[in-house]
Design brief:
Layout lengths: L2 H26 L2 E7 L11 E6 L29 H18 L4 E5 L9 H11 L6 E3 L3 H4 L2 E3 L2 E2 L5 H19 L1 E5 L5 E3 L4 E3 L4 E5 L2 E6 L27 H15 L3 E5 L7 E2 L2 E2 L4 H12 L5 E6 L6 E5 L2 E5 L12 E6 L3
Parallel strand pairs: 2-3, 3-4, 11-12, 12-15, 15-17
Antiparallel strand pairs: 1-18, 2-18, 5-6, 7-10, 8-9, 10-11, 13-14, 16-17
Helix pairs in contact: 2-3, 3-5
The structure holds fe (ii) ion.
Fe (ii) ion (FE2) binds next to loops.
């Protein structure tokens, strides 16, 4: 073979390899289509998954006495239970099971404030109720879940919510791992938190469904935000240390881009700046700037972000990512679900 022919064959081989590598990512992408809030769902087709996003259950809220279950925050489920948060969770579960009875495959995502004050009894009540759900569900921690308390006089000595999450939902994750491919999981890895001086178990993890990567992010501080209030308060902490949340997000975006996977981000806090009388209720301007510059380094990789926290239903874009804030389940008679459909063909 002449040198000229070798060059031509070599060029054709490289071109074919390049086209193939372009084809692989495209083949793996599944589109996430927004359907709406408490909406009628289309008939299921083969391969369809329906994604149900609910948030801010606040189980424990609605009782005259703020101490759920037995006295104290490391308590049990005997004693005082019920309340509006629990009632609305029952309604949510009934709503979701009705959809499943119609023959749909559903994945439920719960984006934080599962409990009202992070008491063990409240977590146990959430678990007891969600055991009645006949489809997989994924719990994420919100700011109300992070630092257990029963009243201003009785709160945990530290942000123990991540430990309670594992105590109550640990086996839920073991089961999820049998059905979904997890790419990352920091929940059980101790991560020293320089701002609190404590060890945190950041609730950052990711898994794939239909080739799409779902990345769950923990922006809850572990330090006590407002000393005159129990719990941690609503502001965001990026957890910028090596084992922290921003580092986890960057690594996950890198991997997803390499695999050609589209990404949906899930956090309790929305990627928004909200400041009243000097107090931050989500990201600060500086934190949002860091977040936006990170997302912009991976254009087109993350295309959607599901969150709660502000108890309102809003849609907007941040750094090209469609953000879906969903209102609180506790705030709507009958419960509140934001629906999506996930399919390679839609
Ligand atoms: Fe909330």
């Amino acid at each position: 073979m002449t040198l000229g022919l070798k060059k031509i064959y070599g060029f054709i081989f490289l071109l074919a390899q390049g086209l193939f590598s372009l084809y692989l990512p495209l083949a793996a992408q599944a589109r996430l289509k927004h359907l709406g809030l408490n909406t009628r769902l289309p008939e299921p087709r083969d391969g369809d998954w329906f994604l149900a996003h609910a948030t801010d259950l606040h189980v424990g809220q609605g009782l005259k006495h703020r101490d759920y279950g037995m006295p104290g925050f490391l308590d049990s489920l005997e004693g005082l239970t019920g309340g509006v948060g629990t009632q609305r969770l029952n309604e949510l579960i009934e709503k979701l099971n009705a959809v499943v009875r119609e023959g749909r495959k559903v994945l439920v995502i719960l984006s934080g404030d599962l409990t009202d004050s992070g008491e063990l009894s409240e977590f146990m009540e959430v678990r007891r109720k969600l055991n009645g759900l006949s489809v997989p569900w994924v719990p994420l921690m919100g700011n109300h879940d992070t630092w257990p308390y029963t009243s201003c006089e009785d709160e945990a000595p530290a942000a123990l919510g991540d430990i309670l999450m594992t105590k109550v939902f640990g086996d839920v994750f073991d089961t999820l791992k049998q059905y979904f491919q997890f790419q990352g999981d920091q929940r059980l890895k101790p991560c020293p938190d320089p701002l609190s001086g404590q060890v945190a178990y950041l609730q950052n993890f990711s898994f794939s469904l239909q080739g799409r990567r779902f990345i769950f992010l923990d922006f809850n501080p572990r330090y006590h935000v407002r000393l005159n209030e129990p719990g941690i308060g609503p502001e965001v902490c990026l957890h910028a240390q090596d084992c922290g949340t921003i580092g986890f997000l960057e690594k996950q975006l890198q991997e997803a881009r390499k695999a050609g996977a589209k990404v949906t981000l899930i956090s309790h806090h929305p990627p928004q700046v909200f400041k009243i009388f000097g107090k931050h209720y989500a990201f600060s301007r500086f934190q949002k700037k860091i977040l936006k510059s990170l997302l912009k380094r991976y254009p087109g990789v993350a295309d959607s972000w599901l969150c709660g926290h502000f108890h309102r239903s809003f849609r907007y874009k941040v750094a090209g990512v469609r953000v879906f804030e969903t209102g609180a389940n506790i705030g709507r008679n009958g419960g509140l679900v934001r629906w999506f459909i996930l399919n390679n063909n839609n």
